[in-house]
Amino acid sequence: MIHGYPANASLAPGERLVLHVSTDAPRFRVVVYRWGEALLPVHRTAWLAGRHAAPRGADDDWDWPPYAIPLPPELPSAVYIAHLEEPDAAPPSLAMDSAAALFVVHGKGRSKLLYKLPIATYQAYNHSGGGCYYNNPPRSLSPPGAKVSLRRPGGGIGGQTWGAADYYDASSPRQTFAHWDAPFIRWLLQAGYRPEFCTDLDIHRDPSLCGRYRLLVSAGHDEYWSETTRNRVEGFVSGGGNVAFFAGNLCWWRVHYADDGAAMVCHQGGPDGALDHWWPASGAHRPEDGLAGVSYRHGGGWWDGPRDPGGFIVQQPAHWAFAGTGLRRGAVFGADTSPPLVGYECDGAPLAAFNPESGLAALSPLAARCGTPPSFLMLAACPLDERWQERPPREGCDAGAGIHAAVMGVFSRSGTVFTAGTTDWPQVVAGGDARVGRITRNVLDRLLEH
């Protein structure tokens, strides 16, 4: 059995890849694949002497034997998979829970489009070492919370991942690269877009990164954000940059990088509340609505089994996001897709009313108190009834109380922010739904050019 992890999940063009590897085989080699429309091999090492090292705890730097791998200097910005290939190994797949490591080669700003991988979220659910934020979390005293290492197998591929299987796609865990990011990136490339790539830790480290692009894109499940990453993305928008979130459960938890960026900490509960919840006064007291216009606390989750195939109800059909779709006010889209477009986790805005006959919704007059930007425009919405497995508590409400809905919307703050309000948007657009595909193109094309 062979496992490994990168010393750094993001590299500059021409920079050496350093992998930390443990194997009980006498030799192995590294085959590097670029992800696009499929796994494309781009580099292969000679056979390397294998060495075995013991696993450690989920909060430890595993400090396994390092192998420096020179990469071709001409590799383009992309997501890469390093397959740790033992003799007679099977071909690689994106769903591997061993023998693989993920890394990004970032770009030089030659594209207008920057795609961000949610490495922090991958690591929050990475169960290598016997723990993660959701099961047997290792404790940290300073800063307080649960601590997980970024230097262990997993983090997108190649490790154990916590969480229930997706009823609609059990081929890969939800909190991995294979589940949402890979299909969306493949769709982007097939549609003719040429993004460059980064990780959330890159934005945390580099204050000028976003400014080299016109549009930042995040897709799927982008739950864990450092305050610095959030500051820089919001500053990018305030400076005229655009962001498109084809995602849900966005920026639900704040993380703190520790050990010189080798680990991260999140405080998710205790006698004084969850100190790293973004929205409440007992936490960061900075509602995530200010980043994307929506929050999971106004939406909800349906994690297990088949879910209600309710779709988005159009609220603003004349908006440019709906150009060419033929959708009218009150029309529904995404109800008959597989998976259903709304879910498995979705974000909403605070609503005052949702008319069941017309399907039309109204923002609450108290929305600004929840952090909703004044210019927020609700484009489509889907009410979440009592069958949803979680409708979280929020300001002035117990769990399940008040109107919960998935909300797709847009707002401007010098730059423009679009939010899809649902995690499963990437799978639906990759599955070929014409209306969701057209909306996605409309958003990308508009925000790349304006």
Report on the architecture of this protein.
By secondary structure, the protein is an alpha+beta fold. The chain folds into two domains: 2-105, Immunoglobulin-like, CATH 2.60.40; 113-118 and 184-252 and 288-449, Rossmann fold (3-Layer(aba) Sandwich), CATH 3.40.50. Helix content is 13%, strand content 31%. The chain contains seven helices and 27 strands. The strands form six sheets. The chain has a nine-stranded mixed sheet with strand order 13-10-14-16-27-26-25-20-21, sandwiched between helices. Strands 2, 4, 5, 6, 8 and 9 form a six-stranded mixed sheet that branches. Strands 11-12-18-17-15 form a five-stranded mixed sheet. Strand 26 and strand 27 (415-419) form a beta hairpin. It is globular, with a radius of gyration of 21 Å. The model has no long low-confidence stretch (mean pLDDT 97).
Label this structure with key terms.
single chain; 450 residues; alpha+beta; Immunoglobulin-like; Rossmann fold; 2 domains; 9-stranded mixed beta sheet; 6-stranded mixed beta sheet; 7 helices
